[in-house]
Amino acid sequence: MKYLSKIFIVTLLITAVSCKNDFEEINAPWDKPNSASTPEMFNAVISSLPLTAGEQSVMNAWLYPITQQAAITSGSYPYDNAKNDVWQNYYYTLGNVRVIEDRIAKSADPASMNNVSAMLKTIMAYKSFKLTNYYGAVPYKEAGYAALAADKGVGVYKSKYNTQQEIYTDILTNLKWAVDNLKTDASQYSLGNYETLFKGDISKWIRFANSLRLYIAATIYNKDQALATAHITDALTKPLLGDTENVGIWPADLNLSLQWREWSFSANCYLRMGSTMWSLMSANDNKDGSGIFDPRARIFYEPNNAGEWVAYPQNPVSGVTPTEGGTPYDKKRYTAWSDKGASNLYSPVNLYFEQDLTTIPELILTAAQVRFIKAEIYNRGMGVAANAATAKAEYESGIKASVNMWKGIAFKSPVWTVAKPSSATATDAEISTLLSSPVVAYAADPATALKQIYAQLWIDQFRQPFDAWTLKRRTGDKTPVSTSNSQYYTGNFGTYQRFVYPDDEITYNADNFKAAAGGTNLNSTKLWITQ
Q1: In a 3-state reduction of DSSP, which class is residue 220?
Q2: DSSP H helices in 48-148
Q3: What is the rounded distance in angstroms from the CA atom of residue 176 to the CA atom of residue 221?
Q4: How far apart, in whole angstroms, are the C-alpha atoms of residue 339 and residue 2?
Q5: Please, what is the angle between helix 202-219 and helix 225-235, to 10°?
C-alpha cells in the first residue's frame, strides 16, 4: 500500500514507549494521542516489519559469519550496531498496538473486532519471537502503555521484564487464540485497504498464524516439551501455509522500495561465500562451477572477478589467512556488472539482493520452512509418533518449495539479467539431481537425517540469518558448522549469544533491568532456548 511508510512516521509522532526516569511529563500523552484511525494505526504495525538499518548492517558483519551462511573477510560494522534500532522499532510498534487494543476494549462491540485482535496478536507474536531471540528477557506484558498513561498512571513508564520462557508461552497462547478466532464473517470489522499484508484474506491469516505457532513450538521443544507438544499436535490438525505461500514483505505488492537493504551490502560489506555453504551445494571445488548441484548456489552467490567459483575458508587457519579485496558490492556494478575489482578472488553474495529493492522480498516465514519443521517433528517424534517416511516426504517437499521460491524470486526480478534462471520453477531434472546428491539424499539413520533437515532449513533461511542464529542456538552443532580450525570460530564468533540491551534502557529502566539481568549485560549470556 502507498500509505504504508508514511503512516508509520505519523504514528511515531503520536505514541511513546520510553521508560525514562524523571521524564514522565515529556513522555505523557499528547493532547490528541489517538488522532490516527484504527486502520491507519494497524497499517503502521505492518509497516514496522521491514528490517531496520541496524539489522541490515549487522547481518553482513556478524550474523552471517555467526551462522556460517557466509564468511567475513575483513572487519565491518560493530556488533552492537542494531541494538537500538531493533529495540525502538519493537516498542514504538507495541505502543501503537496498545492504543488499538484499548480502542477495541472500549468499543460498543469488541467481538466484532476479533479479526483485528487476532491479526495484531499474530504480528506481535512474530515480532516478540524475534525480539526475545535477540535479547532474551525483555519488557513485555506491562510494556507499551505510555500513550495510555492518562488511564493507567505514570507507572507504565517503567516496565518489568518477562523471561524468555514466559514470552514464548504467551505468544503461543496468542497464536492459538488467533487461529481459533479468525473468521470470514461479515459482522467482523474491516480494515479495508489498510490491511496490507494479506489484503483481507482471512484464510491466509489463519494459515500464517498456525504455521508460525508450529514453528515457534518446535523451537522450544527441547526446553518445554509439554508446552511445545500441546501446540504442535493441535497445529498439525489445522491449516498450514501451502507450498507457494511465502510470507514476507513483497515490496512490489506494497509499492515500496526497501532502501535499508543496501546497508547489508554497499557500506563496509566484506562477505563472501563460505566453505560451509559451498560444501552443501557443490560436489567439488571446480572453479568452473561444474560441481554445483544446488540451483540456489547461483542465486545466493556470484563467481569472483575472474568468473570462478571459489569459497572463502569458513575458519581460516592462523598465519595463512587468505588475502581478499575487490569491490563486488560497489554500486558502479549496476552499470558495469563484471567489474568486481581484480583483487576479488572469492565468490561474493549476489549483488542483485542489493540492487533490486522493489521486487525481492524480506522474508518472514516460508512454505519450505514449515515443511522442514514438519520433517523435524516426524523425524524426532515431537508430539506425534516418529515416522521416517513422512519425515522424508516433508523434507523433500521442503527442498522443492525452497528451490522454487528462490528461483521464482530471481526470475521475477526485472533487474536480474546475469545468470538469470530460465524459469520461475525448478525442472524435474534439477530437483532429481539435488535430491540424489550424497549430502542431500535423505539418510536412513534418523540422527543423520535430522542434520540434513536442519541443513536445508538453514539454507532456506539465507536472507533470514537472525532465524538461522536461533536454529543454531537451539540445535548446537547439528546445524551446519565447519569443523576445521574450530578455535577460529569460537574465538571470533562462537561466544555471541545475544544482543546487549540499549544504554538508555539500562539507564532509565535500571531497577527492572537489574531485577531481570542481575546487573549484567553481556553478549555471551546464553538464552533460555540455547542448547
Answers
A1: coil
A2: 53-58, 64-67, 83-106, 114-135
A3: 17
A4: 36
A5: 150
CA distance 401 to 388: 20
In this model, does residue 162 exceed pLDDT 90? Answer: yes
What kind and span of H or E run contains 448?
Answer: helix 446-460
Question: What one-character DSSP code corresponds to residue 301?
Answer: B
CA distance 167 to 152: 22
Provide φ and ψ at 237, rounded to 5°: -90, 0
pLDDT of residue 257: 94
HSE-up of 44 (CA within 13 Å, CB side)? 28
Q: Are 42 and 195 in contact (CB under 8 A)?
A: yes
Give the whole-angstrom CA distance, residue 284 versus residue 275.
Answer: 11
Q: In sequence order, what DSSP letters do the residues of 247-300 get, joined into one string?
A: EEE-HHHHT---GGGGGGTTTT--EE-BHHHHTTTBSS--TTSTTB--TTHHHH
Q: Grid coordinates standing for 205?
A: 491469516
Q: What is the pLDDT of residue 461?
A: 98
Phi first, then psi: give them for residue 398, nearest 5 degrees. Answer: -65, -40
239-285 confidence digits (pLDDT tens): 999 999 999 999 999 889 998 888 888 777 899 999 999 999 999 99
- In the chain, count H helices and then E strands: 23, 6
Q: In whole angstroms, what is the distance from residue 457 CA to residue 462 CA?
A: 9
C-alpha cell at 375: 520433517
The radius of gyration of the chain's CA atoms, rounded to the nearest angstrom, is 23
- Cβ atoms of 98 and 57 within 8 Å: the answer is no
Task: Please provide the distance, in angstroms rounded to a whole number, between the alpha carbons at the two ends of the chain.
Answer: 41
Task: Work out the number of other CB atoms within 10 angstroms of the CB of residue 483.
Answer: 10
In the prediction, which pLDDT does 150 show? Answer: 76
Q: Residue 23 above 80 pLDDT?
A: no
DSSP state, 493?
Answer: I
Q: Does domain 4-263+357-476+485-517 have CATH number 2.60.120.260?
A: no
Classify residue 345 as exposed, middle or buried by CB count within 10 Å of its CB (0-12, 13-18, 19+). Answer: buried
